[in-house]
Design brief:
Layout lengths: L2 H27 L3 H10 L1 H9 L4 H23 L3 H19 L2 H9 L7 H30 L1 H6 L4 H23 L6 H13 L3 H26 L3 H25 L2
Length: about 260
């Protein structure tokens, strides 16, 4: 793989991995892992519309993800159903619509990503988006944690739980959209879930947990891109394989530490 393809791919993978891991640390704590994974599939109709009408498909992905996040948030408040239930319904509908309307020739790239299509403009955009997502999530992090512990306590402290949840959901959507080009809509949700699960296995406090989540996200993304460079295989699946390998190693370390004499 040429450097003009490898470098922007690496920059995108590192930045998205850092932000997805950081935001994912909250997703795992909130027991919303399936929500993070399902949100990535919701982007598929947006990608399909961009391809069909000849505009940047990732603008379509951003628009659909943001719209879906707002709808999910509103439905959760109105129906009192869980996020998992609502996202599950919307995700299957979006996946079905996306597969029906997207041109067959572009389906694999939309589902699994294409590192060869990543440009320096994409990389710079991903870095900016990731920095914004991390910064804003850091601002609301403690409020989200308080809301997890006790919504009544958070409300009494003047925290608008509904608004904070919407901001967080929009930031997750933004991060997911930024990673679609390199990992694909089918697999990018992995970066929001597994690095955080790996970090949780090795963490004894919240600060260590959030830092390790970001670190493992970046490691998964970088490893996948480098392996793709050496093997010629698709980047998205290799990002997943790398991340799962790190998770297994962390689980074994935890097991060995727990049962060592």
């Amino acid at each position: 793989m040429m450097m003009d393809v490898l470098v922007p791919g690496l920059l995108t993978a590192i930045s998205v991995g850092l932000s997805a891991g950081y935001l994912g640390s909250l997703m795992v704590l909130k027991k919303m892992s399936l929500v993070g994974d399902a949100l990535s599939h919701v982007a598929l109709p947006g990608l399909a519309l961009g391809i069909l009408f000849n505009f940047n498909p990732f603008i379509g992905a951003f628009a659909v993800l943001f719209g879906s996040a707002a709808i999910i948030w509103r439905l959760e408040r109105v129906t009192k159903l869980s996020f998992e239930t609502i996202v599950g319904a919307i995700f299957t509908l979006a996946l079905a619509i996306g597969i029906l309307i997207i041109p067959q020739v572009d389906l694999l790239e939309a589902l699994f990503g294409n590192i060869a299509a990543v440009t320096y403009t994409d990389a710079i955009t991903a870095i900016i988006i990731s920095a914004i997502a991390i910064y804003l999530t850091r601002i609301v992090y403690s409020k989200l944690i308080m809301g997890m512990i006790s919504e009544d306590l958070a409300i009494s402290a003047g925290i608008n739980i509904a608004r904070i949840n919407l901001i967080y959901l929009l930031l997750v959507s933004l991060t997911v959209a930024a990673g679609i080009k390199i990992v694909g809509s089918l697999l990018v949700g992995f970066l929001v879930v597994v690095p955080a699960a790996t970090a949780k296995t090795l963490s004894s406090n919240l600060l260590r947990y959030s830092i390790l989540s970001s670190f493992f996200g970046a490691v998964s993304g970088t490893s996948g891109v480098l392996l793709s460079n050496f093997t010629g295989l698709p980047t998205g699946p290799l990002v997943v394989v790398s991340g799962v390998a790190v998770f297994i190693a962390a689980a074994l370390i935890r097991w060995a530490t727990k049962y060592s004499p």
